Amino acid sequence: MSGFALDWEARYREGSARWERPGLNPAFVAWRADGTLVPCRILVPGAGRSAEPLALVEAGFEVTVVDAAESAVGVQRARGIGDVVQADLLAWQPERPFDAIYDQTCLCALPPGVLPEYAQRLARWLRPGGTLFVLFMQTGREGGPPFHCDMDAMRRLFAAPLWHWPDTLPALIPHPAGLFEQPAALRRK
Ligand SMILES: C[S@@+](CC[C@H](N)C(=O)[O-])C[C@H]1O[C@@H](n2cnc3c(N)ncnc32)[C@H](O)[C@@H]1O
């Protein structure tokens, strides 16, 4: 387990979880409503204590949650999420690929230096034709977490021929911490 990942447990214990939303992410709600995100086998990396895994289970998805923080994993297990794994995402490997991945403030929580490695992992964790539902945090400032996800850099990170981007991206979603998230549903070719 990387020391960076372990740091998150301290944040949960201190109660300084400013990244948390009071409810479901509006981007998640919109993807569910417009039929982009339909029941399938889905991974939620770095799910923390977020509400989306339970909403997915209740909607009939087969959900796997992976998080390094013991508290977060405990919360998701207590909610009855079936497959909850405590692991470092930069070391973990699933037995078989998923149909979809929902990444909400996990990518932007990782140090920028590991993003190429993380992006490769996301590609490996998805079956061809699967979809990465991701919220790219827009902070417009140096440092983090959350780290700013420059959209040109994200397009280079998730580039053709492996990834397909839609012609237009959904509108920015305000985050309670005063930031904005850029939703994107990227298809793994
Ligand atoms: C900013 S929080 C977001 C939590 C959740 N997605 C949400 O929206 O509330 C980042 C989460 O990623 C987890 N995390 C960070 N680095 C990780 C790593 N290397 N392996 C596994 N989990 C990690 C942390 O424990 C934390 O729960």
Explain this structure to me?
The protein has helices spanning 3-14, 26-33, 52-58, 70-78, 115-125, 151-157, and strands at 41-45, 62-67, 83-86, 98-104, 126-138, 163-164, 173-174, 180-188. It is globular, with a radius of gyration of 15 Å. The chain is built from 6 helices and 8 strands; from the N terminus they run ααβαβαββαβαβββ. The mean pLDDT is 95. Helices cover 29% and strands 25% of the residues. Strands 1, 2, 3, 4, 5, 6, 7 and 8 form an 8-stranded mixed sheet that branches. Helix 4 (70-78) links the parallel strand 2 and strand 3 (83-86). The longest helix has 12 residues, at 3-14. The chain is an alpha/beta fold. It has a single domain (3-188), classed as Rossmann fold (3-Layer(aba) Sandwich).
Features:
binds S-adenosylmethionine; 189 residues; alpha/beta; Rossmann fold
Measure the end-to-end span.
Answer: 31 Å
Which fold name corresponds to the CATH topology? Rossmann fold
Provide the CATH top-level class.
Answer: Alpha Beta
- Please mark out the parts with pLDDT under 50 across 5 or more consecutive residues, or reply none: none
Bound compounds: S-adenosylmethionine
Radius of gyration: 15 Å
Order of helices and strands: HHEHEHEEHEHEEE
Shape: globular
Helix content: 25-40%
Output mean pLDDT. Answer: 95
- Number of H/I helices: 6
Structural class: alpha/beta
Strand count, sense and barrel status of the largest sheet are:
8 strands, mixed
